[in-house]
Amino acid sequence: MSLFRIGIIGMGTISHAHIEAVSELEDVSVVAVSDIKDREALDIPEGASFFSDYRKMIDTVSLDAVHICLPHYLHKEASEYAASHGVNVLCEKPVAMNRKEAESMASLQDRYGVTVAVCFQNRWNNTFRTLLDISKSEREGKLLGIKGELAWARDESYYSAAPWRGQMKYAGGGCLINQAIHTLDEVMMLGGSVRSVKGVVANIRDLGIEVEDTATANIDFENGARAVILVTNANTINSSVEIEAAFEKSIYTIKDYKLYRADAFNPINKELVVTDELRVGGKSYYGAGHRALIKDFYSYLRDGSGTVVSVSEASQSVKLIDAIRLSSEEGRAIEWSSL
User: Does the predicted model carry a pTM greater than 0.90?
Assistant: First the structure.
């Protein structure tokens, strides 16, 4: 079995989920890492070389793939540099800052003959996979509507610790692109093709940041279903993300890492369907999906058997955020086909 030699670009919090997942794969080894912080401040995998510039790392070390765990504004730049040097890419969310950047990212695979995949690890959660299968089967009848709700807490210390998070030109947005993008992705997978979007973005805590801390949106789908999105970073705690799907015969709810079913005519009595696996020793709301996603990524590189999230797929959530923002600016519904 040949060994995949990989590099990690960006050694922030999320990189540890990647390193943990890779450590469980016998044919994948972290041989290099890159970060602008001093080496002494970082927990570097044993035997890995350290670089302060990811370009030098890619130029110097023979790599099969890199995991990009950088701030949003560097995703496109780093992905393109790696791809142009024949290195496969696994990029953290969001795939890009806006749909224009995402379109450029989508061309990398064909231009350079490499795989470029995106981390939407919540697609691998037991709860969401089960709900998506139920929706596709239509055994509960027609999908009528979806609710996606995220109420988390981000205060001054969150933005002062990494000032790029509060600046539009570096983050591309606030709670929508940084916290709720997984929820948006799941809602769109359930709902299907979008017809129109109307939304509002706002700052309700006045933390001196440029990006939104609160947003709401209505999404009309081509199949007649409708979704409502409710997102905020102004909560006092990180509450469980909730996704609710209403069908003709039933209502399914993902909350507290569990999927529940209730009859449409008796929504109070809920039965447990399936539970998610949780990540041990880290932020629970990351979930355990990174492990399954990364295993699939290397199965895909090895023999094509794994599933990956393409840039084109991942760019749909970025397009949705652009539509919500444009709708808020112009005070009107945005037709999906016009974007």
Answer: yes
